[in-house]
Amino acid sequence: MVATPGIAIWINAMSFLVSGLLLLTLPSVPRTSVVPKLQLADLATDWRTVSRFSRTERFVSLIYILGLLTMSLALALDAQEVVFLQTAVGLTTTDYGLLISITGIGSVLGGLTVARFANRLSLKTLLVSGYLFVALGYLIYATADSFLIVTIGFLLLGFFNAFAGTGFLTFYQNNVPGELIGRFTSLYGLGQSVVQIVFILAIGFTGDLLPLRFSIVSAAVLLAALSLVLMVSVLRPNKRAFFHEDQITKQIS
User: Which letter does DSSP use for residue 201 in this model?
Assistant: First the structure.
């Protein structure tokens, strides 16, 4: 709003350069063993191992899958963000840039809040509040008709994404064995990629056949429903053992 797009791009490029210089200061970690080449048989073994764990720990798999589905749906909604805000809400390109900046400010404040109160926020609180307000933010965004209403939705999204993300990763790292985390993430991540493509195509196609707002609202309602199922599952009294309170600070640090 105060300079040209070229200046903004140069500032962005410099931020990447600074990030690269900071990475150079990290210490080198020597390899303790030779990593063998990946074979097809290894993939089959990994799949059986992850599948066996998923059947044994169904609650952990349920929360993880729900988290991935909400994440994929959120990314699909984001893919239509610019078109929706300009055609359905009537915002300008400058308005959109300002909204992204506001969302970034909300995200920073959310991250600082989680870091500051990590010792006081339970894992359940992070998950429930995070997914509740992220879903609410998308519903507000999908039904908004003015810059102010969209801003409120984006602020909620930015701020509480830190809660949802920290809670999700902490739950995952607490309940999946360390030696299985890499394989678990990779195999489920493959399925997430496929689902994400399906969601993006579905919203795009329905947006061509029907009013775009209908597609966005429908996706936001589905996201809210998935978040509700996740929250109800988290709050079940008989699943208390899955939510350890002593490792949240470890995830933040």
Answer: H
